[in-house]
Amino acid sequence: MADGLSFKNEITKGLFRENPVFAMLLGMCPVLGVTSTAINGIGMGVASSAVLLSSNVVVALIRDLIPEKVRIPAYIVVIASFVTVVDLTMAAYLPELHESLGLFIPLIVVNCLILGRAEAFASRNILASSVIDAVTMGVGFTVALAMLGAVREVLGSGSLFGLAFVHEDATTMLLFIMPPGAFIALGFLIAGVNTGVRKARAVAAAARARAVSAEPAAEGVR
Prior knowledge:
By secondary structure, the chain is an all-alpha fold. It has one domain. It contains 8 helices and 2 strands, in the order αααααααββα.
């Protein structure tokens, strides 16, 4: 798999077919906990992506040096090291976002997306493949959190990226910036995204079928 990866398949994997949130339902703790605004969603997505990319690179480089019996603890140590770097960097340069995300930044250590990609992919593939996997999965995770945060912020606060677009006296659906609203919004997004993916697959399959059926006819003409 490592040497014969299809770049196109890898690009679409994290965004659509195996999206960490919409398809595999990974990392639900930060997904539901911090996405009351789009900025929070993007911030958590980028922080998680940075840890995912860094840990995938290191795991891919040292995979042959780690004894089988201690591979999971070793991966956790690697991940925790990069989470500490990200945590301190955000505290220094993005204090407001760091305070807003709070405990969820250290909790990236136990995000099953990070450890899952290290164990299932980076530990079994070459460096280039592991980098591509981390980037696509990280982008997919960030996009999902941004979408959920944007929906919740628009419906619950009447704003987007902190910019209000409704009158201050207007009534908004405060439910969506509360924990139950996170579940409701995520459910509708999962349904919508997966429906779109299924339709796209059906269209692609129909196009391939038409192309295959047209080939014999073209050969007959020749």
